[in-house]
Write a structure and sequence with these properties.
Elements lengths: L8 E5 L4 H11 L3 E6 L12 E2 L2 E2 H6 L3 E6 L4 H12 L3 E4 L5 H5 L3 H4 L7 E6 L14 H7 L20 H24 L3 E6 H6 L3 H10 L16 E5 L4 E5 L3 H11 L14 H6 L1 H12 L4 H11 L3 E3 L3 H6 L1 H5 L3 E6 L3 E6 L23 H7 L4 H9 L3 E2 L6
Parallel strand pairs: 1-2, 1-6, 2-5, 6-7, 7-8
Antiparallel strand pairs: 3-4, 5-14, 9-10, 10-11, 12-13
C-alpha cells in the first residue's frame, strides 16, 4: 500500500528549523520534497558537529528530501522556481515577509501558473500587523510569547525552553494547516494560501495559562517543575537524582501517600486534603516528600510508583533517554546510511500505524545532489542544464540521486 502523500509534490523554500521540520514530516508521509537551497546552502549545513564535512544536525532534519541549489536572485533562478511551482501541489517558504514578493515568487505570482496550489508561509510574527516585516528567531518568539517568563525557577532569570519550542510549534502548525488545506483541495478542488508565525504557534500552546489569565487575571510565573493547578505534580530530589511524580487526583494522592511514601497521616493533614490546598501549600508538601525520597535512589521510587499505579519516572539526561529500553523498543533511534557521513542515527518516527502512514525512505541530500535530475524532470534539456551550471545559476554535487 502506498504512503498517503505518495505522488504529492512539495517545493520546499525553507531554511533552518521550522520549515524543514514541516517538510521532513511531509516527506515521511510519502511526499516528494524538493528542497530548493541557495548556492551557499541551508544555514544548518554549517552546524557542528560535522562528519566528513557534512552536518549531522542537518542530516537528522532533512531526510526524505531532494536538494537543488539555485541562485534565486537571477532571472533564470526565478524561472526555475516558476517551473517547479507549476508542477507542485504545495509550496512552503519562510523568508522574511516581503522577500518572496520582491523575488516575484509570492503566492499571487505562482497561483497564476497553478491555481490549485497550496502555498504556506512561515515567519517570526506573521505577514501583517505592526511587526509584519520584522524577522524573528525561536529565542525572540519564546521571549515575546511569554514562555520564557514562565520557565525556570521562581526568582530566577527568564529561561529558554531546552528545545526550539516555537520553531517546532510553527512547523507543526504549518503541517496541520497544509494537510487541512490539502484535504479541502481534494474535496472542493481549490488550493489556498495559509500562513503562521513562531509567535502565534507558540502562544497557541499556552492553554492553561490563557484560561487562568482571562478567568482570574493570573499572570503565569516560573514554577520550576511544578504544575500550576496540580500537586504533587513535579520532579523531586531522590538519593541519586530526581524522580517525577504525578499524584494530584484524590485517588492517586491516596495511593502515593499510603503505598509509596507510606505516610498515612498526610491524608488527614488539613493542608493537603484537596488538590487546591496541596497547590497552595506546595512548599511544605515538597519539603515533606523530598525528606523521604532522598533516602532511596530513583529506581527504588519508580518501582514503588509503578506498583501503586501512580504515574512517575526518572529524570534523564539525554543520553539516558536515548538508551532507555522503551525508547529503543519504539525505534525512536533509527539507523540509516548517509552517502558521506556513512552509517548514522536519525530520530525515529513518533507515529505508529497498522498501515502505511510514515516511512524513513532515504537520508538527507547533499547540497545540490538532485539539481540536474530535478531540472530535467521540470523540462530542461541536457544542454540547458549544462548552461545553467556553467553560468553559476545552479550548482550540482555531481552525485547520483
Amino acid at each position: 500500500m502506498p504512503l498517503p502523500l505518495e505522488g504529492v509534490r512539495v517545493l520546499d523554500l525553507t531554511n533552518v528549523m521550522a520549515g524543514p521540520y514541516c517538510t521532513m514530516v511531509l516527506g515521511d508521509l510519502g511526499a516528494e520534497v524538493v528542497k530548493l537551497e541557495s548556492l551557499e546552502g541551508d544555514s544548518t549545513r554549517h552546524f557542528e558537529p560535522q562528519v566528513n564535512g557534512e552536518s549531522y544536525c542537518f542530516a537528522v532534519l532533512n531526510r526524505n528530501k531532494k536538494s537543488i541549489a539555485v541562485d534565486l536572485k537571477s532571472p533564470q533562478g526565478k524561472d526555475i522556481v516558476m517551473k517547479l511551482a507549476a508542477r507542485s501541489d504545495i509550496v512552503i517558504e519562510n523568508f522574511r515577509p516581503g522577500v518572496v514578493k520582491k523575488l516575484g515568487i509570492a503566492y499571487d505570482d505562482l497561483k497564476k501558473l497553478n491555481p490549485s496550489l497550496i502555498y504556506a508561509s512561515m515567519s517570526g510574527f506573521g505577514q501583517t500587523g505592526p511587526y509584519g516585516r520584522k524577522g524573528g528567531f525561536d529565542i525572540i518568539a519564546q521571549g515575546m510569547s511569554g514562555v520564557m517568563m514562565m520557565t525556570g525557577y521562581p526568582g530566577g532569570r527568564p529561561a529558554k525552553v531546552g528545545i526550539a519550542m516555537n520553531d517546532i510549534a510553527c512547523g507543526v502548525t504549518t503541517l496541520y494547516g497544509i494537510l487541512g488545506a490539502f484535504i479541502g483541495k481534494l474535496r472542493h478542488g481549490q488550493g489556498q494560501y495559509l500562513e503562521t508565525s513562531l509567535l502565534e504557534a507558540g502562544l497557541a500552546w499556552s492553554i492553561w495559562e490563557f484560561g487562568a489569565y482571562f478567568g482570574s487575571g493570573e499572570l503565569p510565573t516560573a514554577t520550576g517543575t511544578r504544575h500550576r493547578r496540580s500537586a504533587p505534580y513535579q520532579a523531586f530530589r531522590s538519593q541519586d537524582g530526581y524522580v517525577t511524580v504525578g499524584a494530584s487526583g484524590d485517588k492517586l494522592w491516596r495511593a502515593f501517600v499510603t503505598q509509596v511514601v507510606e505516610q498515612p497521616q498526610w491524608l488527614v493533614d488539613p493542608r493537603f486534603e484537596r488538590n487546591p490546598l496541596r497547590v497552595k501549600n506546595a512548599d511544605a508538601l515538597e519539603e515533606l516528600i523530598e525528606s523521604i525520597l532522598v533516602t532511596q535512589p530513583t529506581a527504588h521510587w519508580v518501582a514503588k510508583l509503578d506498583a501503586a499505579g501512580v504515574p512517575g519516572g526518572p529524570v534523564y539526561t539525554y543520553d539516558q533517554t536515548l538508551a532507555d529500553p522503551q525508547v529503543q523498543h519504539r525505534r525512536m533511534v533509527y539507523d540509516i546510511d548517509h552517502p558521506v557521513i556513512g552509517p548514522m542515527k536519525t530520530l525515529g518516527l513518533p507515529l505508529k500505524s497498522d498501515g502505511e502512514l510514515t516511512q524513513i525512505r532515504k537520508p538527507a541530500p547533499l547540497h545540490g545532489q538532485h539539481t540536474e535530475e530535478v531540472l530535467r524532470e521540470a523540462g530542461y534539456s541536457d544542454s540547458q542544464v549544462r548552461g545553467l551550471l556553467a553560468e553559476g545559476v545552479v550548482k550540482s554535487t555531481g552525485a547520483k540521486a
